[in-house]
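Fold it.
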Amino acid sequence: MPLLQALRPTMPILIGASLMLTLSMGLRQSLGIFMQPLTHDVSISISEFTLAIAVQNLAWGFLQPLAGAMTVRYGFRSIMMIGAALYVAGLALMAGAQGFLSVMLGAGVLIGSSLACTAAAIAMSVATRAVPAAVRSTVLGIVSAAGSLGALMAAPIGQILNEDYGWRVGLVGFLVLSLALLPSAWFAGRVDKIPLPPRTPDQIADTSAGVATKIAFGNASFVVMTCAYFVCGMQLVFITTHLPSYLAICGMDPMLSAQTLGVIGGFNVLGSLFFGWAGGRWNKLALLGGIYVFRSLALGWYFVLPPTPATTLLFGAIMGFLWLGVGPLVAGAVAEMFGLQWQAMIQGLAFMSHQLGSFLGAYGGGLIYDALGSYNMAWRIGVAVGLAAGIIQVAFALIRPTSSPPVLRTA
């Protein structure tokens, strides 16, 4: 098969990038499991815990362009290995936390810095460079799907350890899992030996980071995608951070939150595969807008009804399908618009907007809950801005389409 033939030489790179992504994202998405027992034991408020998660997202977002730019100079391997070590250190500090400062440094600063070096933007850039353009979108979907399995594994493990042995043991379990980031980053770093393909005249190549940034923000399609990406981050981090707390307030079984996060991870696989495949055939930016619209509708439907185990798991399935599908679409769109040399940095620039939204979703949700005693206002804001962003993204994508995706041709 043409796809298997294209992937065989770079399979170790793709496996390494996928495992790195699945661990970094899966562990991070499951930290909300520990919010209630951790805040009680170390005497900090919900809003202080969510502030640490918000700082994590800001550190991740603002360091992402820097990490991407540094891969051009130092290569992917060194940056990813540093990120893996920071993740292990962050979980160790968080597991031994005695107060707000250690939670902030561990969950916020160290893990946030690590994600800039190990999560979607870097992993997708590695996968993009490793394969031919004709199979790129499909491969990005496969890597994103593999990266979705982390939450499916981490959330139940964390919840079981948390319930049986306490939150500190649960975080130690996460620390042990995170050690696998080191060999994953090493194998993914083999991509440094693959030369860049010839560029087209409209793509960015040998220039400075400043010039590449100026060119990116001079592209209207990129600017609209970046603004809509803000809402994506706000919705997703609101859910991962506050859904366990919301279910606990509603008197649901604590295991339900872990099960729901696991369902999100499982359906991430299907969604990532689908949108990777779809991005090779249809307008990537229009597909992004559609994801934002349907996410917002699902968010409104779920929170307007009293939660039950069935509706919660169904909500997790819908949101999971629409979750990491943005990854292959954004990575593919950036590669089409600007080429591969500065892809990691330019994708990181867009991701800064995503993480500003994540900050608002995590910390803003905590502030609203502390002030009003419920999440009603928070989810209503999420639905309203999500619908607006999705509709604008779809409309602009149809008016100003990017270049057509490459087509895999067979003999």
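The two ends are 11 Å apart (CA to CA).
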